[in-house]
C-alpha cells in the first residue's frame, strides 16, 4: 500500500514538472518587466552581464522580444533580435503582425532568415532552430526544402496579416513574392489533402478556415485581384457552396460571405460618378442606394416623367399606353424600324410594359377561348365554322409562336446551360409546351371526328352500327351549336365511340395539359410582381417561408405514410365493414382530408352487420380493432394537425421575422434582376409582333447570306473582329483604371479610419501604460516602504535586544557575586564540617578506648554477659558516621 502511494506521488510530481513552467528568478522577472516598459538600459545590463537569458518566457509564453514588440520599442526590438534564436524571431514576427506593428514587421522581415535569395547553406543554418521535431529535438533541414519552409513561415505571417486586414503588412510580405493558395476541394483525394485529413482532421479544417478568412480579407483582395468585385462574387459563391458541405462551420462561412458583400458595398461607396457605378454594375450590392439610383436612371430612360408618378397615376397612365398605344407603336416599328418610335419602344420601362400587357392579353385570350368559348373547338368539326373561331384560334397560335420564338432567342443568346439555370425559363418552356399541345389536340380531334363522319355513311357510326341522326353531332343537324343542347336532358347513344379504350383519350389529354399549362401561366405572373414594392416584399417572404413549408411537408409525409400503413393493416380483415380505411389508398385519402378538418370523428367505427374477411371470424375482435383504431386515428390527428401545424406556424414566424430585416434589400435585388432582364438588348416589341420580320431583320438576313457566300467574307469578318476588339479594349482599360482608383480610395479611407481608431486606441493604450507604470511605481514604493518598515522594525529589535542583553549582564553579575559569596560560605562550611568531623572521630575514639578498657575489666571479673553488651555497644559506636551540615546559617 505504501509503495502504491509512493508511485502515485512520483507520477503526480512528474506531471506537475511536465505541465508547469519553471519559476522565474528575480533577474528574469526584472528583465521581462523592463522589456514590457521599454527600459533598454536595464535589459542590456541584465543580458550583457549574463544575469538573465534573453530567451526566457513568462507564464503566457511571451519572450522579452514579444514584450518589446507589444511596447512598440524599435530600438529595444533591434537589440533583442541579435540576442534571441530564430525561432523566437519568427514568434516575434507573428506577434508584430497580431499587434499590427508595421515598422517592426518590416524590421523583422529584413532578418536574413527570411531572405529567399540567400544561399541554401545560410538559410539552412537559420532554420535549424525552427525545424523542431515532435519530441522537442531539432533536426537539419535539407537544402532543397529550406526555401519552401521560409515560404511556409511567410505565408503564415501573410495569413495573419490578411485576417487582421492590415494593408501595409500584407503589401510588405507580398513584395517578397508570397501569395496564398486557394484550398483544394473539400473532397479532394490528393496525397497532401488525404494525409492532412487523416493525420489531424481538426487541424486540417482550421487551416482551411484560416485560409478562407485570409482570402476574404479586403486587404488581400484589394492587393491581389484585378477585379475585386468579381473576386468577391466568386468567393461568396464558394462560401455558399462550402456552407452546404461543412455544415458545422455554416456560421463562419456566412460571416465570410457577408464580409465580401460588405467590401463590395464599401467599394461602391467610393464611387463619385455614374460612370464609375456603371463600371462596377449580390443582393446588398445591387440594393445599394447608388446602384439603385443608376439602375433607375437606366430603367426610366426616355420616360423620366413616369419616375416621379405615384402608383395610382402610374397605373392609370400605363393601362392606356400598354393596351392601346403599344400595339400601334409596334406596327409602326415593324414598318419603319429606324424611326424615333424605336427609341421609345427600346427603353426598358416600355419593353416591360409591353411585355406585361402582351402576357396579360395572352392569358385573357387563352382562358376565354378555352372556358367561355369551349364550343368554338367543337365547331371545327362542322361545315359552317364561324369566322370568329378561326380568328381567335389563329391569334392564340400566333401568340404561342411569338412566345416560343422569344424563348428560342434567349437560348441562342445565353446558351442552353444558362437558360436552363433559370427557374422562370423552365416554367416558360413547360407552359408553352403544355398549351401548344393542348390547343393542337383541340384542333386535331374535331377534324378527325369530322373526317370519320365524312368517310363513313351518316346512318352508321365508326363501328358500322345503325344509329339515329339525332345522336350525331349537333352541328350536323342544326348547323350550329347551342349552349342549351350541349347538355341535353335526354340520354342519347353515342355517335362515335372511342376504341380501344386503353388508348388515352386525346380530349382528356388536352384538358389535362391545359390545366397544367394555365396553372403555370397564371403562376408566371409572379415574375413581374417584384416591380411593385408591396407585392415584391410579400413575394420575398413567401420564397423564404416556402422552404420551411417543404421541410415540414417531408415530416408530414413520413407521418402520413406511417399511419396509413398502420391503419390499413389494422383494418385489412375488416375492409368489408368500413369505407374509410378500406385499403391503403382509401386510408391515405382519409388521413389527408382529416388534416384539413374534413375527416369524420366516427371514421374508425365498423359496420357490425357486414361480414369479415378473416379466417377466424371472431366477432369480439371488432371491439379491439375499433379501440385501437380510435387510438391511432387520434394520435395521427394530434401529431399531424396540432404538433406539426403549430410547429410550421412557429418556424414560419421565425423565418418571417428574419426576413423582415432584409426584406427591403431582397426586394430591391429581385426588382433589379427583373429590370436587368429588360435593360439587356432585345427585341423592342412583345409577342406576337416579334415574329413579324421587319425590313431591318430582312436586311440583316440578306447580309448574313451574302457574307457566307462571298469569298472575301473571311477578310471582312477579321476586320470586323479587329474593330470589335479595339472597341472592347477601351472599356476594359477604363474598368481597370476605375477599379484601381476605387481600391486606392478604399485603402485610404480604411487607413484613415484605422488612424482614427488608433488615436482612440493610442489614448487607451497610453492610459493603460500610465496605469501600468503607476501601478509598478506604486508597487516599488510599497516595496521600499515595506523595506523601511522592516529596517525600523529591525532597529527596534536590535535596541530591544541590547536592552535585554544589558539587563541580562546585570543579572549575570549579581548572580556571579552571589555565586562567589556562596562559594566562600561553602568553604567556611566545609572547613567547619572538617573540624567537627575531626572532633567527632576523636571523641568516638576516646569512647571506644574507654569501652575496651571496661570490657577487659569485665572479662577479668568474669562478667561475660556485660562484656558482650559492651562489645555490641562498641560495634554500634563504630558504625556511627559523621553527618555534616549542608546549610549555612
Report on this structure.
The structure is a single chain. The chain has 889 residues and is mainly alpha-helical. It starts with a helix and ends in a 10-residue tail after the last helix. Mean pLDDT is 76; it is low at 119-145, 466-495 and 712-729. The protein is 72% helix and 0% strand. It has five domains: 14-218, Serine Threonine Protein Phosphatase 5, Tetratricopeptide repeat (Alpha Horseshoe), CATH 1.25.40.20; 303-346, no CATH class; 362-527, no CATH class; 533-679, no CATH class; 741-879. It is a multi-pass membrane protein. InterPro entries: Ankyrin_rpt-contain_sf (IPR036770), Ion_trans_dom (IPR005821), TRP_dom (IPR013555), TRPC_channel (IPR002153). The chain crosses the membrane at residues 314-336, 352-373, 385-405, 425-445, 549-571, 630-654. It is found in: Membrane.
Amino acid at each position: 500500500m505504501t509503495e502504491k502511494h509512493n508511485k502515485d506521488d512520483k507520477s503526480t510530481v512528474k506531471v506537475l514538472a511536465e505541465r508547469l513552467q519553471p519559476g522565474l528568478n528575480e533577474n528574469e522577472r526584472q528583465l521581462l518587466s523592463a522589456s514590457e516598459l521599454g527600459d533598454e538600459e536595464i535589459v542590456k545590463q541584465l543580458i550583457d552581464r549574463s544575469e538573465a537569458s534573453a530567451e526566457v518566457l513568462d507564464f503566457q509564453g511571451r519572450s522579452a522580444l514579444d514584450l518589446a514588440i507589444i511596447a512598440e520599442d524599435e530600438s529595444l526590438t533591434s537589440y533583442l533580435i541579435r540576442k534571441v534564436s530564430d525561432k523566437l524571431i519568427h514568434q516575434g514576427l507573428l506577434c508584430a503582425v497580431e499587434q499590427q506593428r508595421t515598422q517592426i514587421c518590416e524590421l523583422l522581415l529584413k532578418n536574413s532568415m527570411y531572405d529567399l535569395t540567400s544561399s541554401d547553406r545560410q538559410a539552412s543554418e537559420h532554420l535549424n532552430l525552427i525545424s523542431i521535431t515532435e519530441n522537442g529535438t531539432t533536426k537539419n533541414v535539407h537544402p532543397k526544402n529550406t526555401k519552401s519552409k521560409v515560404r511556409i513561415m511567410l505565408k503564415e505571417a501573410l495569413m495573419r496579416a490578411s485576417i487582421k486586414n492590415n494593408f501595409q503588412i500584407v503589401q510588405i510580405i507580398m513584395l517578397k513574392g508570397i501569395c496564398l493558395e486557394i484550398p483544394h476541394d473539400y473532397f479532394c483525394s490528393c496525397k497532401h489533402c488525404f494525409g492532412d485529413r487523416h493525420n489531424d482532421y481538426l487541424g486540417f479544417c482550421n487551416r482551411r478556415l484560416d485560409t478562407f478568412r485570409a482570402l476574404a480579407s479586403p486587404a488581400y483582395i484589394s492587393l491581389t485581384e484585378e477585379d475585386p468585385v468579381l473576386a468577391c462574387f466568386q468567393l461568396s459563391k464558394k462560401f455558399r457552396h462550402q456552407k452546404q458541405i461543412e455544415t458545422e462551420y455554416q456560421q463562419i462561412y456566412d460571416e465570410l460571405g457577408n464580409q465580401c458583400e460588405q467590401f463590395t458595398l464599401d467599394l461602391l461607396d467610393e464611387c463619385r460618378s455614374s460612370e464609375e457605378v456603371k463600371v462596377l454594375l449580390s443582393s446588398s450590392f445591387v440594393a445599394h442606394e447608388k446602384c439603385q439610383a443608376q439602375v433607375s436612371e437606366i430603367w426610366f430612360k426616355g420616360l423620366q416623367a413616369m419616375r416621379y408618378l405615384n402608383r395610382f397615376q402610374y397605373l392609370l397612365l400605363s393601362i392606356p399606353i400598354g393596351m392601346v398605344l403599344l400595339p400601334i407603336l409596334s406596327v409602326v416599328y415593324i414598318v419603319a424600324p429606324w424611326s424615333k418610335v424605336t427609341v421609345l419602344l427600346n427603353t426598358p420601362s416600355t419593353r416591360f410594359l409591353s411585355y406585361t400587357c402582351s402576357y396579360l392579353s395572352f392569358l385573357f385570350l387563352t382562358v376565354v377561348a378555352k372556358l367561355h368559348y369551349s364550343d368554338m373547338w367543337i365547331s371545327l368539326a362542322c361545315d359552317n365554322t364561324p369566322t370568329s373561331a378561326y380568328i381567335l384560334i389563329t391569334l392564340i397560335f400566333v401568340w404561342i409562336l411569338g412566345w416560343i420564338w422569344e424563348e428560342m432567342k434567349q437560348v441562342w443568346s445565353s446558351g442552353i446551360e444558362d437558360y436552363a439555370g433559370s427557374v422562370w425559363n423552365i416554367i416558360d418552356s413547360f407552359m408553352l409546351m403544355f398549351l401548344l399541345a393542348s390547343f393542337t389536340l383541340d384542333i386535331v380531334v374535331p377534324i378527325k371526328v369530322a373526317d370519320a363522319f365524312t368517310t363513313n355513311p351518316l346512318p352508321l357510326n365508326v363501328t358500322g352500327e345503325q344509329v339515329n341522326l339525332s345522336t350525331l353531332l349537333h352541328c350536323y343537324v342544326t348547323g350550329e351549336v347551342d349552349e342549351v343542347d350541349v347538355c341535353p336532358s335526354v340520354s342519347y347513344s353515342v355517335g362515335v365511340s372511342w376504341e380501344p379504350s386503353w388508348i388515352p383519350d386525346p380530349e382528356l389529354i388536352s384538358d389535362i395539359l391545359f390545366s397544367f399549362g394555365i396553372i403555370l401561366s397564371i403562376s408566371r405572373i409572379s415574375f413581374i410582381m417584384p416591380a411593385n414594392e408591396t407585392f415584391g416584399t410579400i413575394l420575398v417572404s413567401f420564397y423564404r417561408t416556402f422552404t420551411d413549408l417543404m421541410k415540414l411537408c417531408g415530416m408530414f409525409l413520413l407521418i402520413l405514410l406511417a399511419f396509413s400503413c398502420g391503419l390499413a393493416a389494422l383494418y385489412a380483415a375488416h375492409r368489408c365493414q368500413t369505407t374509410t380505411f378500406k385499403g391503403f389508398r382509401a386510408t391515405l385519402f382519409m388521413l389527408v382530408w382529416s388534416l384539413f378538418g374534413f375527416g369524420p370523428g366516427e371514421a374508425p367505427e365498423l359496420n357490425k352487420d357486414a361480414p369479415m374477411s378473416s379466417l377466424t371470424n371472431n366477432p369480439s375482435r371488432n371491439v379491439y380493432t375499433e379501440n385501437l383504431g380510435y387510438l391511432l386515428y387520434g394520435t395521427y390527428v394530434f401529431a399531424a394537425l396540432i404538433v406539426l401545424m403549430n410547429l410550421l406556424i412557429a418556424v414560419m414566424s421565425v423565418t418571417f421575422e428574419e426576413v423582415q430585416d432584409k426584406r427591403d434589400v431582397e426586394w430591391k435585388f429581385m426588382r433589379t434582376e427583373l429590370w436587368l432582364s429588360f435593360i439587356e438588348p432585345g427585341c423592342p416589341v412583345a409577342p406576337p409582333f416579334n415574329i413579324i420580320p421587319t425590313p431591318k431583320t430582312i436586311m440583316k438576313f440578306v447580309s448574313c447570306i451574302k457574307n457566307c457566300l462571298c469569298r472575301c467574307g473571311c477578310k471582312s469578318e477579321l476586320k470586323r473582329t479587329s474593330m470589335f476588339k479595339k472597341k472592347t479594349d477601351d472599356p476594359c482599360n477604363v474598368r481597370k483604371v476605375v477599379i484601381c482608383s476605387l481600391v486606392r480610395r478604399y485603402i485610404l479611407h480604411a487607413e484613415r479610419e484605422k488612424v482614427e481608431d488608433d488615436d482612440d486606441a493610442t489614448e487607451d493604450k497610453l492610459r493603460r501604460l500610465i496605469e501600468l507604470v503607476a501601478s509598478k511605481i506604486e508597487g516599488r514604493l510599497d516595496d521600499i516602504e515595506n523595506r523601511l518598515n522592516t529596517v525600523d522594525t529591525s532597529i527596534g529589535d536590535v535596541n530591544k535586544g541590547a536592552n535585554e542583553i544589558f539587563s541580562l549582564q546585570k543579572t549575570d553579575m549579581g548572580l556571579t557575586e552571589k555565586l562567589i559569596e556562596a562559594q566562600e560560605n561553602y568553604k567556611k562550611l566545609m572547613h567547619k564540617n572538617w573540624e567537627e568531623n575531626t572532633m567527632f572521630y576523636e571523641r568516638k575514639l576516646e569512647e571506644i578506648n574507654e569501652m575496651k578498657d571496661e570490657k577487659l575489666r569485665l572479662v577479668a571479673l568474669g562478667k561475660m554477659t556485660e562484656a558482650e553488651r559492651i562489645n555490641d555497644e562498641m560495634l554500634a559506636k563504630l558504625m556511627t558516621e559523621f553527618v555534616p551540615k549542608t546549610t549555612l546559617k
